Amino acid sequence: MALGEGGGGGSRLRRQLESGGFVAGEYVKQLSQQSDGDRDLQEHRQRIQALSEETAQSLKRNVYQNYRQFIETAREISYLESEMYQLSHILTEQKGIMEAVTQALLLQADRDDPALGPRRAAAAADPFLPLSAKEAAGGGEEGRQRTLTTLLEKVEGCRDLLPESPGKYLVYNGDLVEYDADHMAQIQRVHAFLMNDCLLVATALPNRRGAYRYDALYPLDGLAVVNVKDNPPMKDMFKLLMFPESRIFQAENAKIKKEWLEVLEETKRNRALSEKRRLEQEALPRPAPTPPESTNPFEEEDEEEEEEPSAEEEVVDLSLEWIQELPEDLDVCIAQRDFEGAVDLLDKLNEYLGDKPVSQPVKELRAKVDERVRQLTDVLVFELSPDRSLRGGPRATRRAVSQLIRLGQSTKACELFLKNRAAAVHTAIRQLRIEGATLLYIHKLCHVFFTSLLETAREFETDFAGNNGCYSAFVVWARSSMRMFVDAFSKQVFDSKESLSTAAECVKVAKEHCKQLSEIGLDLTFIIHALLVKDIKGALQSYKDIIIEATKHRNSEEMWRRMNLMTPEALGKLREEMRSCGVGNFDQYTGDDCWVNLSYTVVAFTKQTMAFLEEALKLYFPELHMVLLESLVEIILVAVQHVDYSLRCEQDPEKKAFIRQNASFLYETVLPVVEKRFEEGVGKPAKQLQDLRNASRLMRVNPESTTSVV
To answer: Quick one: signal sequence residues (predicted)?
Structure first.
């Protein structure tokens, strides 16, 4: 009985499984009753398995699509948050302008009616008291100082704040609840003290009512206030931005939240205005004190000399609007990730103050700006850290690197850039799938590594074109990266005991890719040779031992008989193999009817030795010269000693003549071919091979000798 055919059966099965009343036990029971046998059940099982795989693939596609949409949404939210912060900053500036206009109108009214002046001055001193209380307060400053002292005595760890700033006074304070910025979970209850130049946050002590412990202190210059939109049950909240962190607090009700927002903005504005007035007053030229008249005639010349530098003194004008707003503008640029704009502002300031004298106001401005420079540097360092996304290639780091270089941090930019690229290369190598074919994996490995190295080198040359001192760091980094590549290469090629031919092809591929770096004037071939020499030596010696063991095994079974290849095709194939080995006169050793006048042992030894030599020459570089030469000599000696021993021990004249014919092939044909091919591959003759061939002549002259010459 058929359980469903084709797409129609699959659709019905899908609808049946997706139905709300589906019961697995009943379905299996019904299926067992309706099936004709095991074959129907197997087919139905395959259809369910195919449906399961299709569903899994669909889920994967949906998850990937939703993940991409989530990433895009998160990016849009980030942009929106940046724009909202910028909008809040603009609104704050507009509010400040409006209040400045109002203050100017009030000053004009004071000139018209002088009686209102003292009253408004008292109101400006403490904006959070009722106007009648301000008028009644004669010593308002001292009263606020005492209030601040009394409150801060209840805060552990704050006794050293007042002596350092005698002009500090309390503006506003109250209880708040702090929430986690990511998960909006309640963290702790705090008490905030707003002073005329800073905000103090303290946590409540659990066992002491009305007592607090110091938590944090934030200068108003680097503090930004952002209103958080009510989203029940999360309401009456506002956010404080202090680069590089932010904190969210909840007020008791909407009225207190509004008071906090207004008083924070008002206090920040008053702080900025007082700082501006102070800088303007310091920038004004001060009249020099009149020196007492002197009757000493010799002091006139000294006075003239002293007057010259005072006349040359230049007053630095720091009252310019862009200088006053520079710290806040830098904060905005950093928050908006406008790194270029921040560095442009710093360059503008450095150019303006370049030839100006270093006065106390300039030092204070420099201190504020240096703090922003440190913050900007930290952000750029984080942009280049390997913890960030490594996608995008070397060009993705260009923005942060170029701004660090403009800030005079070339060494740090170079170090972070190379660390970032090292992590990227390591990740790319680790993500490579190890295929079944070693050569295929090595092709992918070389492509990934050397392409990354080439791109990194080109990007480095672009970013650090004017910093020649950084190039040595790049060479050191390239060597360490090459070591990482060789570790992965050797683990796959040599540790897995691949054949010598496979190892030779893999090394050849690596060398060819390494030569691509010569396009940018970088030659790392000597480094890859130095790192691979140990593994290649081990591979040559291992393969040499295999050939020697195989030759000894064949020698032990040697009967000294001619080879019969049975078919002309087999004989033709052997001729072609010998021709590829470099033996051009092999026809003189062939006989009639597919016979070869050589023993199987000598022919097999010839093919195996020449194959070893060809593969070894692909791996050759000068450091391997003696290893390759000694391996060849050891392999040849096994065959030579066997032929020598057989000549001395064989008594049958016919077999002795056959052995002598094999010896002649070995000495007069094979050894010269090995010697010639070695010289072609290496570029110079091998004296050890010449000595070995010359020594064999003594044996051919006196074959009856019972002493082995070799």
So the answer is: none
Pairing between strand 155-156 and 212-219? parallel
The DSSP 8-state label assigned to residue 233 in this structure reads T
Q: Is 243 helix (H, G, I), strand (E, B) or coil?
A: coil
> What CA–CA distance (Å, rounded) separates 30 from 32?
5
Q: What is the mean pLDDT of each run of 10 residues along the chain (710 residues)?
A: 47 74 80 76 84 85 79 78 76 80 72 53 41 39 65 74 66 90 85 88 82 85 84 85 84 91 90 82 61 50 44 63 83 84 88 80 84 87 74 74 85 87 86 78 88 86 80 86 88 82 87 82 83 87 89 85 84 85 79 81 89 87 85 87 84 85 85 87 81 62 40
Helix (H) or strand (E) holding 695: helix 687-701
**H or E element at residue 51:** helix 38-112
Polymer length in residues for the chain: 710
SS3 percent helix, strand, coil of the chain, rounded to 5, is 70, 10, 25
543 within 8 A of 500, measured Cβ to Cβ: yes
DSSP-derived 3-state class of residue 633: helix
* Alpha helical stretches, state H, 385-437: 398-406, 410-430
152: number of Cβ within 10 Å: 22
Identify which of 230, 264, 224, 213 has the alpha carbon closest to the alpha carbon of residue 247.
224
